[in-house]
Amino acid sequence: MDSTPSSSSSSPFDLVSSALGQYIPRDAAAAAAGSADSPGEGTAPRQEPANHTARRQEQILGVVNLDRDLRITRCNLDAPVFAGLDPPVGSPIVDLLPPGDVPTVTRRLRQVLETGDAHVARVQRLRRGDGTELVVSMSILAAAEPHEGLTVSLIAMARRLHLYAAETAIGTSLDIGETAQSLAESLLAWGDVAAIDLDFAVWTGEGVTGQAPGRIRLRRAALVPDRAWPEGYLTPGDDLPRDASRLLAQAIRRDDAAQAIVIPDRATIERVLGSPRLVRALVPSDRSAGVACIPLVLEGTPPVVLGVAEVWRRADRPFHDSELFDLQELVARTSHHVDLARQHQREHTQVLALQRRLLPRAGGDTVETASVYQPATPDSAGVGGDWVNSFPLPDGRTALVVGDVVGHGLGAAATMGQLSMEARALLSAGLAPDEVLEHLDETVTLLDDAESGLAAGYSALGSTCCIAVYDPVSHHVALSSAGHLPPVLVSPDGSSGPLPVRPHPGLGAEFALREPFHVHTFAAPPGALLALYTDGLVEDPALSIDEGIGRLADAAATVHPWDALPEAARHVVSALAPVRQRDDVTLLLARMIGYRKGDTATWRLPARDDAAARARVLVSALLRQWRSSADTRDSVLLLVSELVTNAVRFARGPITVRLIRAGHGLLCEVGDTGNGRPRLGSGGLLDDRGRGLHVVHRLTTGWGVRWTDTGKVVWAKVAVRPWCR
Predict the structure, then answer these.
(1) Of the residues 169, 194, 245, 649, which has the fewest C-beta atoms closer than 10 A?
(2) Which among 359, 355, 357, 313 is positioned nearest to 81, based on CA atoms?
(3) Is 506 exposed, middle or buried (0-12, 13-18, 19+ CB in 10 A)?
């Protein structure tokens, strides 16, 4: 019986090289260092297969032997696919690697030397002598005795293996740029340079189904490998010239269908482009002679082209039909990932636009504000439900609102926008913070009913909100919270700490858990700093929530009264926000300014028939002291007279009159203990009821009512000339 050498008698290098014999010509194998032994004497020469050349082109297997210093001792990389990989015997294996991969691969090689455990089928890139790269599957095995060192087998990524690896790598991110980069890196296995050009509408998240075929606009999304490119060549982020976009769109659209095309040589490329400027923009280098253009098609009726993938090769590597089929299959399998990234970009853009619309624009004359908002991750499914707002109320006060809506995406964004606008409308209408939260609580409950809430796949139950209203005259803040973390107050003397806000369930709690919302009132003198925030700023797995709030209080206390508030807010967030954010981070800083003592005056009058006359005397003396014009004095005296008269006529108890001058206006307030709401009537000339409010309406630029614990305050604004101070 003929004996066959056992596997233990040959090294892995010899076994792999023997397997290569049927593909590599005998003369090439003999010339290669470490090739399989030539046939002995008396052995008939082996007959070369008739399809020898074609089989050589298909060969994908190579092998390298290393000593314990990781230097090459033998090498068999004669297959055409390894052209450009010519490591001399004695050179280190790391010469074949991109610089960034050297530490990782070296560590794997050393580990196999030490343990003898093989590393099998690791995807790796090899660097050719001309700077291009080849994607291979690398396996590292310990050399069989009596040999020492390692055997590294290299498989130029086979069709199915590479398609599978590419599919698993592409689509792991919803970021358009990262998705395009993953696709380009996968395509590099078929060429020297790979580029992805996407329709501009894909970048912006716009709809792409209604576009005219000839109106495609392309932007370069990805380009590999990473190297220095010639001047004028398009790199990621550059828009393709319109004529280049038009040429590509026309080339890939034939017979009303998107098809792959191949331009085989440099002369044809230059003739098709027709312009040296386009050649510089689209052709990677002088060595690039052929290109395959594969459209990224979104299946539908009709199909929609999302962009174009370009694979460039040198002249000595023409594209074969089987390779073109592989390219088309890979691009077809991954086009839907690009469209998913486009849809995510559209949602992200919409939510972010709403989020930015809700951010405070600027502080008023009595409060300086600054806010910071950081999404959990730049490519999250959209922006979260955190929102902040600050705005002056019509009666001269300032509202500060912060909320945290459950969830992310469009459902949370819609709820966030609705709650924010509703809170602003109710506060502007004069409702107190606790009353506003009662309405928001009811709104969240209604949004979560079976028809509009849960059926849409989103629930806002448990959302939180905190509302603070600052009175610049009394320098007091009225605050109410629904399940939100307590704000932090920094006093002018530098002391800081969280406010003792009574805990309350979040919005939309079950009826049995609902309690009246508590209003916490505290002094905020000029120079005080109030910090409202969401839990993402203070939550840290390594700390308790109280410690996180304490860190915020310490950081806010470092803000100097003369520090620019926007920079201070960014500094506080950078000092506190965790490196790996699990939730959105939101911070609103408000520095209290208030009115100067000389710009306000308050009087308390008994509710008697002479109250209006007494008020006119007091107001007239103050306006002369403020050096107001005669016209202004006449208008303000008539206004005060009407408001005090209405208070005496329709209310009870003492009457409070307050005047505030600010900028080019004057605010007049009259408070009483009544609970009736003044309304403009539509009565005739002989109807005396409500005529005073018509006078007020004509004299002012705005008026309204706000409610207090003891009654109401009717306020009115009068435009005046600049004050003489």
Answers:
(1) 649
(2) 313
(3) buried
Asked if residue 538 lies in contact with residue 584, where contact means CB atoms within 8 angstroms, the answer is no
What are the tens digits of pLDDT across the range 349-383? 666 666 666 666 655 678 999 988 887 655 444 45
Rounded CA-CA distance 673/692 in Å is 19
3-state secondary structure 657-678: EEEEEECCEEEEEEEECCCCCC
Closest CA to 13 of 59, 87, 73: 73
What residues does 475 pair with on adjacent strands?
none
Average pLDDT estimate for 504-529: 84
* pLDDT top residue among 392 and 688: 392
For residue 25, with 0-12 CB atoms within 10 Å meaning exposed, 13-18 middle and 19 or more buried, which class applies?
middle
Are the beta carbons of 463 and 440 closer than 8 angstroms? no
- Take residue 707 and report the two structure tokens written for it: 């409610």
Looking at residue 505, what is its pLDDT? Answer: 86
Written as six digits, the tokens of 345 are 């970009």
Helices 611-625 + 630-650 axis angle, to 10: 150
Residue 71 has pLDDT above 80, yes or no: yes
User: pLDDT tens across 32-58, in order?
Assistant: 333 333 333 333 333 444 444 444 445
**How distant is the alpha carbon of residue 451 from its chain centre?**
31
Tokens found for residue 709: 């614990």
CB atoms within 10 A of CB 718: 20
For helices 565-576 and 545-557, the axis angle rounded to 10 degrees is 150
**Environment class of 144 (CB within 10 Å of its CB; exposed 0-12, middle 13-18, buried 19+):** middle
- Residue count of the chain, please give it: 725
Tokens representing 668 are 């007049």
CA angle 293, 297, 301 (to 5 degrees): 140
**Spacing of C-alpha 55 from chain mean position:** 50
Collapse the DSSP code of 631 into the 3-class scheme (helix H, G, I; strand E, B; otherwise coil) and give the result.
helix
What burial letters (b/e) apply to 219-257, b meaning 16+ CB within 10 Å?
bbbbbbbeeeeeeebbebeeebbeebbbbbbebbbeeee
Token couple for 713: 């305050």
Phi, psi of 284 (to 5 degrees): -60, -40
Chain position carrying tokens 């482009």 = 273
| Cα 670–Cα 673–Cα 677 angle in degrees, nearest 5 | 75
Query: What amino acid occupies position 287?
Result: R
Between CA 79 and CA 426 the distance in angstroms is 77
Structure tokens at 521: 């009132």
Question: Measured in whole angstroms, how far is the alpha carbon of residue 383 from the centre of its chain?
Answer: 7
> Measuring CA to CA, how many Å separate 309 from each of 133, 211, 275, 296?
18, 19, 21, 7
Joined together, the tokens standing for residue 269 give 């490329």
Residue 510 CA to residue 224 CA, distance in Å, equals 56
Rounded Cα distance between 445 and 435, Å, is 16
Tokens of 163: 């398609």
Token pair 């049927």 is found at 22
The conformation of residue 119, written as its DSSP 8-state character, comes to E
Report pLDDT digits (tens) over 614-649: 999 999 999 989 888 888 888 889 888 888 988 888
Greatest pairwise CA separation for the chain in angstroms: 137
Q: What are the residue ranges of helices labelled H in 101-199?
A: 102-115, 159-169, 176-187
CA–CA separation, 293 vs 248, rounded Å? Answer: 8
Only one residue has tokens 């970021």, namely 175
- How far apart, in whole angstroms, are the C-alpha atoms of residue 718 and residue 634? 11
- Name the 3-class secondary structure at 43: coil
**Three-state SS for 620?**
helix
Residue bearing tokens 């696709």: 183
CB 668 within 8 A of CB 659: yes
213 half-sphere exposure, CB direction, 13 A CA radius: 16
Q: Count the helices and strands in the chain (H runs, E runs).
A: 18, 27
Tell me the C-alpha distance between 597 and 635, whole Å: 24
